[in-house]
């Protein structure tokens, strides 16, 4: 492995330590749990707290979305593994300011189980906790079974909208409703061109043959819907856009936010090559790109590939999307 | 090649087109030259213009540093190749607001030649043009021959400081002096763990054997000062920090800005692992990290590796570093 590594068992602790050092103006470690990253503004009295969490290896997600008018506390898991229930619980306690906490996380078995347990513990503490489960990955289940879909980069929009709504002083039910609307309005798809390697494992977590690509791949290398011959960037962009928009089925004139994220090892210039074509395709369907994001927003170690997320907007979502934010990831 | 590509000859045009689409709030294409990206705030009357330029494949550099209180216009070259003299000339014209233009660029033969020609053309137009040549790469020549050193990620600090000084309304000579001080105060080093491939060439531009690393590598794969066995992340961090700080020789108590950039295919979490150790080493020398930057700021296609840049600060540089900025890269 040509990687920057010490002991693979230390990678998450070292990542979090380096992250907190690099962004000490915005975040701190929870004093009682080194697997909880907390915004320096967390716990403001009377304001709904925003919590998320997930496995490591997706940086800047999840920790990078901690900050002002965004996520208040993040539970940090091992590479590609759910945080513990205790870490979610500690994150909820750190985020609580007496107005309740919205836990906005992705639809994975471990996260579902641990958030459920953490919620029970927090309710015993007297903290009101409600959840939104992100399920924006179109390829992971049919639309009729949306509750089975995985959460991917649409989570960033869910956090942005939820954090902004909390910043308006809205009560918990309204924060939950805004975050739920955000993720309901999101559709995502991933395409993989190359695998990644968990350092402790030492070999790639799946394989993609040279000249092939995996359409619908998940953030941890979960199998996609099909393996195809590697196409041109424009053909891939067309395919990704079609998968997302066919599922979305938005009326012409709809304003959308678009997020194109590299998966870790994709050169930045290629993301712009993809986006150039995707934007044309989105506009060709009569949609209006209100705000685009292109970069490494939600990665999977050194996987080669990209994910496209489209969120349909309304007046409230536009206002919340535009609210001033300070976090390392955006 | 497992890459997102159309015709390799189109990659720069498509990158620029996607970039301008994605960041249309901040930038536009020059109407007369599709290889010049211009800030929407460029050409303000009475304000010194800031120009840079360089080869493509380093995104978000160079185009990503166009914006408010940063670079006004960027000349865009082919992958890893200098922009033309005409593009530098057109960038100078786009940036000019009657108070002259500072061209802040890196020390490469093609750029030196083309900026020199562009300057002559611009002077004929009646535009005052002065230049600063970045030479922060410690490994590319001894300190006694600093004028031979290459420019690398220290250029980002040079642009930030130059752009901020221009924003204060300072005259050209003072903008040049501030940018010169910024780069004089920078030292950088790169370490490569894996090569990159120019799509039109189709094979890696150099090779690094598995289990080896190249210390002092340049942004285009220029040979480093030595090939070593691949070490732990901490040992690499120690070596990079020592190379930079031994050359810098700063008195204890000096405040510094630190920029750690991935070279394209390095997972983001590994940058934090490196930074965690580098920060400890920098502080162990009695230096004070005033502001750190960790991310993909100046890449080399999908090269695996990282560069470390340390800029020594004084009161003026701190003020200018902290000035509000809006550009895609920061």
UniProtKB/TrEMBL annotation, chains A, B:
GO function terms (MF aspect): glycerone kinase activity
Keywords, in A-Z order: Kinase, Transferase
Top-level lineage group: Bacteria
EC number: 2.7.1.29
Entry-linked InterPro entries: DhaK_dom, Dihydroxyacetone_Kinase
Domain DhaK: 7-330
Annotated GO biological process: glycerol catabolic process
Pfam short name (any one): Dak1
Assigned GO CC terms: cytosol
Protein's name according to its UniProt entry: Glycerone kinase
Species, as recorded: Rhodobacter ferrooxidans
């Amino acid at each position: 492995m040509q990687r920057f590594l010490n002991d693979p068992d230390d990678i998450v602790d070292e990542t979090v330590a380096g992250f907190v050092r690099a962004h000490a103006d915005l975040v701190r470690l929870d004093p009682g749990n080194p697997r909880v990253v907390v915004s320096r503004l967390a716990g403001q009295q009377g304001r709904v707290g925003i919590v998320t969490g997930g496995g490591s290896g997706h940086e800047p997600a999840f920790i990078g979305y901690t900050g002002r008018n965004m996520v208040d506390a993040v539970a940090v898991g091992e590479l590609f593994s759910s945080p513990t229930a205790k870490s979610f619980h500690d994150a909820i306690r750190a985020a609580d300011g007496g107005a309740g906490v919205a836990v906005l996380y992705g639809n994975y078995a471990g996260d579902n189980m641990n958030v459920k347990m953490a919620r029970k513990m927090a309710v015993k503490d007297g903290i009101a906790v409600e959840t939104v489960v992100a399920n924006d990955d179109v390829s992971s289940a049919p639309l009729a079974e949306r509750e089975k879909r995985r959460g991917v980069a649409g989570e960033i929009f869910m956090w942005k909208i939820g954090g902004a709504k909390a910043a308006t002083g809205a009560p918990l039910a309204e924060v939950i409703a805004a975050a739920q609307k955000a993720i309901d309005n999101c559709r995502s798809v991933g395409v993989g061109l190359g695998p990644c390697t968990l350092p402790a494992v030492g070999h790639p977590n799946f394989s993609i043959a040279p000249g092939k690509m995996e359409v619908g791949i998940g953030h941890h290398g979960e199998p996609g819907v099909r393996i195809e011959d590697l196409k041109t960037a424009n053909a891939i962009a067309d395919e990704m856009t079609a998968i997302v928009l066919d599922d979305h089925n938005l009326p012409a004139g709809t304003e959308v936010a678009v997020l194109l994220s590299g998966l870790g090892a994709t050169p930045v210039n290629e993301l712009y090559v993809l986006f150039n074509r995707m934007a044309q395709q989105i506009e060709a369907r009569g949609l209006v790109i209100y705000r685009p994001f292109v970069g490494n927003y939600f990665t999977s170690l050194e996987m080669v590939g990209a994910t496209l997320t489209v969120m349909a907007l309304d007046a409230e979502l536009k206002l919340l999307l535009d609210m001033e934010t300070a976090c390392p990831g955006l």
